Amino acid sequence: MFAERFKNRLMLQQQAGLYREPPEVKTRDGKYLSIEGRRVLNFASNDYLGLGVSEELRRRAAGNFEKYGTSSSSSRLVSGNYSIINEAEKVYASYFGYSNAIFFPSGYQANLGILSTLLERGDTVIFDKHVHASSVKGMMMSGANFLGYNHNSMPHLEKRLKMCTSEQVAVLTESLFSMDGNLLDVAGLGKLKEHCRFLTIADEAHAFGAIGSGGRGIAGSVADIAVGTFGKAFGFFGAFVLLPAGFKEYLFNFSSPLIYTTTLPEAHAATAIDILEIIARSEDKRKRLRDASQSLKKGLLLEGFRVTGDAHILALEIGDETKAVNMARMLLRRNIFVLPARYPTVPLHKSILRIGVTALHEEEDIASFIDHVREASGELK
Ligand SMILES: Cc1ncc(COP(=O)(O)O)c(C=O)c1O
């Protein structure tokens, strides 16, 4: 029966080095976590600007929950369409330069919500093979035909576009890829857009807030639709989608993951407005993030490691799944927390340590990380 099947599957996961068992985090204190009774330096966070531990944001969010209460208690399509949510969406659309914005309870749900609704049978979606699991799921739910192109390869995307006979074509990509840390070839995509008609959907989950002018990400010139999450550089939770005119009404009418879910509370929207004001004046944090990321990549390369990543997400290439897990374990013993990313998050036998740099990291943290990686890697050999 079910229990037997689950037991067998889990056993196979273990044998393949793919078993997932997240360590329990007792508390968080800035760049440190308390794990297994020890204080460890956190290099596995997406809180790129450190807003998730900012006193100012904590105070403002608490004030908003005090003022507005805790729950919207209904879907947007029932009694949850509050003025402050509409106002916040207008503020986001205007800041990022789009006609409209719409909030979702999470980035995962946002990708399901837009892709499964805007695309349908007969359409074609051409996607970068490294897009997030939520985008893959959304595409599959839509019923559209899908064609993958090699990661960030504009020549391959061009070939795919030439093969495509559908009237309605969408291209799906990320702007800062969540695992490899590569930046999208915005200029290359822009050139293709001059010659072919397609709708571009760019997931800027890891870019918004952290890179680009005023934290506006990098794909604004090519993305017709952009997805952002509050759960990363915004230090909060939930997500926003930036849209051209006419699309928001369509989602309100046809997007099941939006229609049949309780909307985020008013306090969330009020806090989202506060966060955008903080993001706009966080240039110093973005600079610190850039400097720390460059310094870490340079240091690891100098030590002879293979590292990819153009910004604050760095991928230290390991390969073998068990080796990646062991390396992360050894680093944890040395009070460094970094997670191994394994199949199916990355291709089989291409495991990495996925490093999340943040503006909270100082030069001594970077130096310490490199020292420990060098020593742990030496011991593993
Ligand atoms: C590229 C990308 N898109 C979407 C998501 C989902 O966002 P959320 O955590 O808000 O559900 C993630 C989160 O890991 C992501 O990396």
Biggest β-sheet strands, sense, barrel:
7 strands, mixed
Order of strands across the widest beta sheet?
4-10-9-8-7-5-6
Say how many strands there are: 15
Named at the architecture level, the CATH assignment of the largest domain is 3-Layer(aba) Sandwich
The radius of gyration is: 21 Å
Shape: globular
Count, helices: 13
Bound molecules: pyridoxal-5'-phosphate
Helix content: 40-55%
The SS-based structural class is alpha/beta
Low-confidence stretches: none
Q: Taking all residues together, what is the mean pLDDT? A: 96
CATH T-level fold name of the largest domain: Aspartate Aminotransferase, domain 2
The CATH first-level class of the largest domain comes to Alpha Beta
End-to-end distance:
43 Å
Query: What's the CATH superfamily of the largest domain, by name?
Result: Type I PLP-dependent aspartate aminotransferase-like (Major domain)
List the secondary-structure elements in sequence, H or E.
HEEEHHEHEHEHEHEEEHHHHEEHEEEH
Beta strand % = 15-25%
Q: What's the number of structural domains?
A: 2
Give the key terms:
alpha/beta, Aspartate Aminotransferase, domain 2, seven-stranded mixed beta sheet, 43% helix, four-stranded mixed beta sheet, single chain, binds pyridoxal-5'-phosphate, Aspartate Aminotransferase, domain 1, 381 residues, 2 domains
Word description of this protein:
Helix content is 43%, strand content 18%. The radius of gyration is 21 Å and the shape is globular. The chain has 381 residues and is α/β, with parallel strands linked by helices. The chain folds into two domains: 16-49 and 283-380, Aspartate Aminotransferase, domain 1, CATH 3.90.1150; 55-280, 3-Layer(aba) Sandwich (Aspartate Aminotransferase, domain 2). The strands form three sheets. It has a seven-stranded mixed beta sheet with strand order 4-10-9-8-7-5-6, sandwiched between helices. A four-stranded mixed beta sheet has the order 1-2-3-13. The protein has a four-stranded antiparallel beta sheet with strand order 11-12-15-14, with helices on one face. The protein is built from 13 helices and 15 strands. α2 (55-68) packs antiparallel against α10 (266-280) and α4 (107-118) packs parallel to α5.
